[in-house]
Amino acid sequence: MAIKKLFASVGIGGASVETVLTEPNVLPGGVVHGEVRIEGGKVPQNVQGLSVGLQAKVEVQTQDGEALRNMEFHREQLGGAFELQPGAVHVVPFGLSVPWETPVTMFLGQPLRGTQIGVTTQLDIARAVDSTDLDPVNVHPLPAQHALLEAFGSLGFRFKSADMEKGRVHGTRQQLPFYQEIEFHAPSQYRGLKEVELTFVADGRAMDVVLEMDKKPGLFSSGSDSYRCFQMDLEGFEQTDWVAYLNHWLAEVGGKRNWF
């Protein structure tokens, strides 16, 4: 829940805005349901528009290194203009679509550290704009994503961190201006691997899966990265043994340490 005040153009008597999510748990491609409650202040005000959107905290490259920035990646209008009378209350229900590419913020009921996504509400009144604080949304993995995350766990990989980065993953169906990386510590049986980063890029039909494997340095060589990308259908994925599939690729890259 977020509450903010928007003052009238003369500096007094502003409206209040409160957004409540009726269900904060959602899957990519799903819908976040809630309502916006607008209460008039002490003076009449002309509401020019009301909208809700999705916002993520994204890593952005700067001249000084990396910085976290709030990045909006989807917004929907909830209605047209109307006059807000003093003390009047307007309750506007909404269903906000969640893009298929939306990063995962939860797994097995636990939040993924380093990910933050939420709903923002924007009220346009008389040449002013009021945006509420972030109402957090819990984005759970699609069944296909869940299967891959479980496969990594079955192979002994340990979750390290997750983040969202501004930029593009080349060769994928990416539409959003940023992507998510979920990073794992590699288990000892993959002696040549240090870490593995996993990226999902989904649409309503299939998903591109990108693996970036950080290889350990050898005696006479420095470490390097190896990339693999494959497509996974969102339906019918259960016909594949993903533990064996991932192990084949990971063992090929990290099964032994490259000493030379």
The gist of it:
By secondary structure, the chain is mostly beta strands. 10% of the residues lie in helices and 53% in strands. It has helices at 143-154, 242-254; strands at residues 2-6, 15-23, 25-26, 31-39, 45-62, 65-79, 82-84, 89-97, 106-107, 110-111, 117-125, 128-131, 135-136, 138-139, 158-166, 178-185, 193-202, 206-215, 225-233.
| Strand tally | 19
Pattern of helices and strands: EEEEEEEEEEEEEEHEEEEEH
How many angstroms does the end-to-end distance come to? Answer: 57 Å
Biggest sheet overview = 6 strands, antiparallel
Q: Mean of residue pLDDT?
A: 86
Strand content: over 45%
Q: What is the overall silhouette?
A: elongated
How many helical stretches?
2
Helical residue percent? under 10%
Q: How would you classify the helix and strand content by structural class?
A: mainly beta
Rg, rounded, reads 23 Å
Low-pLDDT segments, ≥5 res: 1-12, 217-223
Give your account of this protein's structure:
With 260 residues, the protein is mainly beta. The chain is 10% helix and 53% strand. The strands form 5 sheets. Strands 5, 6, 7, 11, 12 and 13 form a 6-stranded antiparallel β-sheet that branches. Strand 9 and strand 10 (110-111) form a beta hairpin. It is elongated, with a radius of gyration of 23 Å. It starts with a strand and ends in a 6-residue tail after the last helix. Mean pLDDT is 86; it is low at 1-12 and 217-223.
